Amino acid sequence: xxxxxxxxxxxxxxxxxxxxxxxxxxxxxxxxxxxxxxxxxxxxxxxxxxxxxxxxxxxxxxxxxxxxxxxxxxxxxxxxxxxxxxxxxxxxxxxxxxxxxxxxxxxxxxxxxxxxxxxxxxxxxxxxxxxxxxxxxxxxxxxxxxxxxxxxxxxxxxxxxxxxxxxxxxxxxxxxxxxxxxxxxxxxxxxxxxxxxxxxxxxxxxxxxxxxxxxxxxxxxxxxxxxxxxxxxxxxxxxxxxxxxxxxxxxxxxxxxxxxxxxxxxxxxxxxxxxxxxxxxxxxxxxxxxxxxxxxxxxxxxxxxxxxxxxxxxxxxxxxxxxxxxxxxxxxxxxxxxxxxxxxxxxxxxxxxxxxxxxxxxxxxxxxxxxxxxxxxxxxxxxxxxxxxxxxxxxxxxxxxxxxxxxxxxxxxxxxxxxxxxxxxxxxxxxxxxxxxxxxxxxxxxx
Length: 447
Known about the structure:
By secondary structure, the chain is α+β, with helices and mostly antiparallel strands.
């Protein structure tokens, strides 16, 4: 794994070589991830895995033609061949009037702030083994748990570096820690499975293995002997471990490439109230130790905190340079980069908490559904139609009753957004966070 400084040197060298070879502009991106993971099952070591992958990608522009190539070989001779091949490919590529680097005058400038994403730790296989064993033991200790799919613990380090031919160079590194357990309750055809997990940049921020394991076991046992869901239009509550998916569907609809292609169900609705006026959804790329914190985006533009929903309305699209050109707008600092063209992504995202507890949110529900797991990908990004398989619990008389399974929930995302009411139990555990959400008027049917 290269250091950030070494990676920036390689990336800048590729950009310089590309312009010397005839490219009008270029950028180069280096990414490396080194991970160690240990898995235990039924108290015995099941797997130890060590992986390290690095990749450097070069994107060049010749006029309005562009091409991208990548390699894992950091040898100087191989990188020189990469440049020649990429420039030759760009000369033969079709023209794209929206292709190009981000505007130079908008590039991030100055030293990048430290968001404390790296705790300086190194992988300790023995400590990982003990954590994997401990989390599984905690899950198996829950009465009613009968089997295990295993416990696991992992450590990772990443490096990211980006350089462009028009003056940007920046990079950062991070560490990662993760612990999970998956166990089974019951016997035979009545078995039920569930899991618990947590990840963080700093080991000190990781939830205790006892809590993670106990949650996995408790959830599995709670799902035993499921009944049938009520059929028809009933109030639905989404548990925090699935409620963030609602925000994910919003992000897909306001992403510049989808808007530019005309494949977003929010086209034409960008000035309309979509949510209750009190709903706030915030993107905060500068959160210390945030799982997706970053000072600049995948094109070298500065990032900034932004309410993407406020006053019930979206505040605009999330744009990379290409989609911004197509729409006649300015890029917003939300570009993401892999090996080729840029895409669009948010950073640390959350839906702000409401004012009432989850218990109060369901207190007036005589018959409803509390969803803890969603299955399938039944969402139409063009129309907003939503239909997902689900499992969870029955709500009766204002309280959570027994488990239910094998049902579907359906509506349209526009109607779901309008009916959404958040509870006050927001917790920052993931890259996308939301509290318990209540949505009335969705249709529940047996699978």
